[in-house]
Amino acid sequence: MSKEKLTLHSSQYLEALVNNDSKIIRKIYDEIFPGVCSYIIKNRGSQEVAEDIFQKGLIQLMVRYKNEPFIINGTFKAYFFTVCRNIWRRELRSSKLRVTNSTIVELKGEDDDFAVTALEQERWELFSEKLKELSENCRKVLSFYFSKITYSEIKTKMNYQSETVVRQRVFKCKKKLIEIITKDKRFKNLKEL
Question: Is the pTM of this model over 0.70?
Fold first, then answer.
């Protein structure tokens, strides 16, 4: 049996989740799960954990889209992978806190977890959108900076005269990014309560 090749717009994937379209949901599993699973296994997870994270991602997208439809800029595959990656990172941070904390910690309910994960995803989207509004130079400098590349390496890659120039440029670019993020009306809604 040959697999039918479907090319869909991101909104069609989201609609399929809301309408429980098994054919397209199967396509999502077939095309995206292997990458998500590989990422989670490489980052201290297992196949079973990857399946849970994938499910949480699907549910999060479905609930969020059902409550307030949104547009995905880019491919559904890349967007959904980022959703799953962010859920996994949050789980890792959460489990690290639970394991290392000697006091009793009240575990949050799954509904709270979904809400927080959705909020983090919206913050990431706002950050990514506003990063694109910066000059190409600022985007490159901040990309290197956020990737933990040393000032010395940034100096070489960007052909700057000194590390001091790099530090000043990083500072100015971060300041500009913060400024345009905080001016966005969505920022107030996305701040932590």
Answer: no
